[in-house]
Structures are given as C-alpha cells and as structure tokens.
Amino acid sequence: MGAIDKSDPRIAFVPEDQAATPPAGLIEHMKDRWWVTHPVEGLVFYVTRGLHSPQRNSNETITRHLRDKLYPWAEVKFIPSVFRRINPSDYA
Fold first, then answer.
1. Residue 65: how many CA atoms within 13 Å on its side-chain side?
2. Which among 58, 64, 61, 65 has a CA at the least distance from the CA of 32?
C-alpha cells in the first residue's frame, strides 16, 4: 500500500481538543501515545469496515515509519491522553 491522500474516504480526523475531553458513555482512554496528526484537522484514524482505527503507537519510531509510508502530509505528535467513545459490539 502506498501513500494515502488526506481526502481519501478511508481517513477520518478528530480534532485534538475534542479527543482530550472524555465523552459520555463507554469510552476507551489511550494514554501516552505517538499519533499521526494533521496540523489542522487533528488525529488521524483509518476507516475499515466502518471501524475507526487510531493511527498511533507507543513507539515513536514505528509511528514515524507509518507516517512516512502512508501519510507524508502528516505530522507525528506525542499526546498524553486521548478519549473516544466505543461500542462493545464492535469487538464481538
């Protein structure tokens, strides 16, 4: 797989300020991760089968490699705390 354009429908973004606030309901709390981010749009998620996969890792080198290979338009940023709402049926 080659580079993915930021306008590709398989890419979704969540603004950093939105991700920093815990939403109501059942949540996932991702701590101390290196994220692929867009400087304006926010955190990058890859969408497959309707699920949003966070483009992040605890290892900076792995995240930079992911960015270099798939998201050359993006930045890599350490974010200490990200929240997102989850649906348990997504994991069944």
1. 6
2. 58
Three-state DSSP at 77 gives: strand
Residue 79 backbone phi and psi in degrees, to 5:
-125, 120
- How does pLDDT run across 30-73, given as a tens digit for each residue? 999 999 999 999 999 999 988 899 999 999 999 999 999 999 99
For the chain, which residues make up each domain, given as ranges?
11-87
d(CA 69, CA 62): 11
Alpha helices in the chain (DSSP H): 16-19, 60-70
Residue type, 81: S
